[in-house]
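Incident log entry.

Two folding requests arrived from the same account within the same minute. Monitoring flagged them as a possible duplicate submission, but the sequences differ. Recording both here for audit purposes.

Request one:
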Amino acid sequence: MSIPDSNKEQLRIAISKRYRNQFWVTFAIFSAIVLVIILAFFLLKDSRIWYASDPLYPILYMLKDLFYWIIAVVWFGGTALIAFMQWRRSASDIVGMVSSIEIMQRGKEGYVVPVPSNLTDLQPIMQEMFDSALKDRKAVEETEKRKSDLVLYLAHDLKTPLTSTIGYLNLLHDTKDLEADKREAYTEIALNKATRLETLVEQFFEISQLNLRETVLDKTWFSLNLLMEQITDEFYPLLEGAEKEVTVSIAEDIQVYGDAGLLARVFSNILQNAIVYSDPHSTISVCASKKAALETAFAVPSVEVTITNRGETIPPEQLQQVFDKFYRLDESRTSITGGSGLGLAIAREIVTQHGGTITAKSNYGKTDFIVVLPL
């Protein structure tokens, strides 16, 4: 379980303050007692004239020369004893804290973290750490489950197009006198299946590579309008088949400083998502505008790109998850129409690396994906 640095510092300060206060309070009480004894001795000694026949005379006479040495030994010895007892208490508390952390690793939701009785004021910090760690653990488990399910899902899907491709290629190879129209049909089917295999392999590649390397940005100035036009052209076959279209409304003078290849992937992933989830025969719009520093959260001017599609409104609870890895809006979709659930997650990571933001909003059958990049 990883403990955030801020929580570590809180714990360090709280524990140091607690032990420091305990030591000085105990030391002050002990010193006050020693001081009272000294005052009592002098008051007793000077209260009257003592004679040899007095019962306390031998004791007072003996302490007359050794009193200061006795006080010094008692004071220093008591201080050492206090320090030793404080050390033993801290060692016991450390063992108790370790036990608490071990219990936290096995705890479930709603569990109240126990802490040593001497450190009860640390309970809120420990509880916050536990709740945060539990939330992170659940997120990791959910991501791993989705990843595992998706890998099994894609592995199963690989078999079907591969078997079909081999079957049609065997027909083409074995049937020498196959009619031209059938040969053309079988060739087209085999090509489609092979294309599907390529898509599945690319999804496997994305899953295996997503968090395994740091991407180095190759930043240059480029025309945003030209980049969008090129991306739109690449989607022409998909748009034509779905009877949809994309309109681009970006001024030609808008220049962006960034990694054109990676940002092209960002907008391609968003566009592909918009095409898949938009209404039939609908239009997807892409527009961009420059924003002054005061209009955004950045301290510099920026460009805001908005990709809008018409379709089912995304519920607020799902809107918060669309950028999560392996999350798909419609789990009932087959792998032919749905992606691996990585496209928008990858888009967010690339935009974040550029120092920008990516958000989504959906209402009244319209969904907007908004990318803001600092200039």
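Request two (distinct sequence, not a duplicate):
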Amino acid sequence: MEFISVIAAAVAGFAFGAAWYMALSKQWVAASGIEVDESGQPANQSKTPFILAGVAMLLVAGMMRHTFVMSGIDTLATGLVGGLGVGLFFISPWIMINNAYGDRPFNLTLIDGGYATFGCGVIGAVLGLL
């Protein structure tokens, strides 16, 4: 069951990310400086970022599960709160540091940090549920 919960949580986090970035695509493209074609779609159509994101989601979900088990987090509510905490207080500050040194717009930090926070919340909720 452990592997299934990690895979389910990773899929949920990935799906949430797809919805998050589709909803904020114009703002993210503008803030990130990604080159776009005449239709407004990213010029680089490589699948590599999606593959790496899937692997990253498995790693995050796996480590969150391990941490949750060690901490006794085992309900949907505690998983959600724990996940939000991981995203808001671990991942988002790291994103902010990277973006600050890269002189990236703060709006990019808000978009990516928001995904880290709520995406980890989704992962945590699924882990707590399963």
